[in-house]
């Protein structure tokens, strides 16, 4: 996500750190935050984000900063674990460095999980449930799902939608609509929002809705979505696609402008 790439700036603003905080400064002041990560050019951006996030969390260990660090360690781990499998014929130390980075990320993620078992932070609660099958954590999150901190956070709304998708279609759709309502101007929502809405509307034979969100997915750059089934359903019933294409374009524009309003109906 572009949100991940913008993390450093947003984290600095959240933590109150000055804008002179750089990777070089972090590695100089706290070398331990850098030396146990991979040392070659692989995963360069992810490595830098993790090192800076470690420094920020060390200086200001708020729940938000811990949560951002956890997410960035996951992203770094995904990258470095793949890189660790690339065998260097001439430079074996590079492979060893990547393995070390992979092991560091696993160790640090486990540390955060252990330290936040009793958390009340919505994001950490979701991670405790989704990564560690901690049902108590999910129960806590469900108890606070109507709180402003949760209803105003698009990421947590998407997490809840993923949870409810297994058994409550109406709740899932309402949560996904809320994600789109909360989308900031110029940002791109997770494509999972559109594909899930398309699937749910098609499942409930709301073919106009399914078509609109499949087109919005296409406009967002997702080319793999299959338009044929829903198009066939609409055209076989005599439905003109032109007005729906116009509505899809307007919906996409509203989402991109941060002005989408949920129809609040299912």
Any overview of this molecule?
This protein is mainly α and about 270 residues long. It has 2 domains: about 25-125, no CATH class; about 145-255, Serine Threonine Protein Phosphatase 5, Tetratricopeptide repeat, CATH 1.25.40. The chain contains 16 helices and no strands. The chain has helices at about 1-5, 5-15, 25-30, 30-35, 45-60, 65-85, 90-115, 120-130, 135-145, 150, 155-165, 170-180, 190-205, 205-220, 230-235, 240-255. Helix 2 (about 5-15) packs parallel to helix 5, helix 5 (about 45-60) packs antiparallel against helix 6 and helix 14 (about 205-220) packs across helix 15 (about 230-235). The radius of gyration is 22 Å and the shape is elongated. The two termini are about 30 Å apart. Mean pLDDT is about 90; it is low at about 1-15.
Give the structure's gist in a few sentences.
With 266 residues, the protein is mainly α.
Feature tags:
mainly alpha, Serine Threonine Protein Phosphatase 5, Tetratricopeptide repeat, 16 helices, 70% helix
Low-confidence stretches: 1-17
Number of helices: 16
Q: Structural class, please?
A: mainly alpha
- Total beta strand runs: 0
What is the N-to-C succession of helices and strands? HHHHHHHHHHHHHHHH
Tally of structural domains: 2
The share of residues in helices is: 55-70%
- Roughly what fraction of the amino acids lie in strands? under 5%
Q: What would you call the shape?
A: elongated
The top-level CATH class of the largest domain is: Mainly Alpha
CATH topology (level 3) name of the largest domain = Serine Threonine Protein Phosphatase 5, Tetratricopeptide repeat
End-to-end separation in angstroms reads: 29 Å
> Mean pLDDT score, rounded?
90
């Amino acid at each position: 996500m572009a949100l991940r790439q913008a993390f450093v700036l947003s984290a600095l603003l959240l933590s109150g750190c000055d804008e002179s905080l750089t990777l070089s400064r972090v590695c100089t002041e706290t070398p331990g935050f850098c030396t146990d990560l991979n040392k070659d050019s692989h995963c360069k951006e992810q490595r830098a984000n993790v090192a800076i996030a470690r420094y920020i969390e060390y200086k200001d260990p708020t729940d938000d900063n811990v949560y951002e660090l956890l997410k960035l360690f996951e992203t770094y781990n995904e990258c470095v674990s793949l890189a660790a499998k690339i065998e260097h014929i001439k430079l074996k130390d590079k492979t060893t460095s990547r393995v070390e980075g992979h092991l560091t990320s696993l160790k640090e993620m486990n540390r955060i999980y252990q330290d936040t078992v009793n958390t009340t932070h919505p994001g950490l609660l979701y991670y405790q449930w989704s990564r560690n099958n901690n049902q108590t954590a999910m129960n806590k999150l469900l108890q606070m799902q109507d709180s402003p901190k949760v209803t105003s956070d698009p990421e947590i709304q998407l997490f809840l939608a993923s949870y409810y998708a297994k058994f409550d279609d109406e709740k899932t759709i309402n949560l996904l609509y809320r994600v789109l309502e909360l989308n900031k101007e110029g940002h791109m929502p997770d494509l999972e929002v559109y594909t899930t809405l398309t699937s749910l509307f098609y499942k409930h034979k709301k073919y106009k809705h399914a078509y609109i969100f499949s087109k919005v997915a296409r406009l967002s750059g997702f080319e793999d979505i299959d338009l044929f089934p829903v198009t066939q359903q609409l055209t076989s019933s005599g439905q003109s696609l032109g007005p729906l294409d116009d509505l899809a374009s307007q919906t996409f524009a509203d989402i991109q402008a941060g002005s989408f309003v949920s129809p609040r109906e299912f």
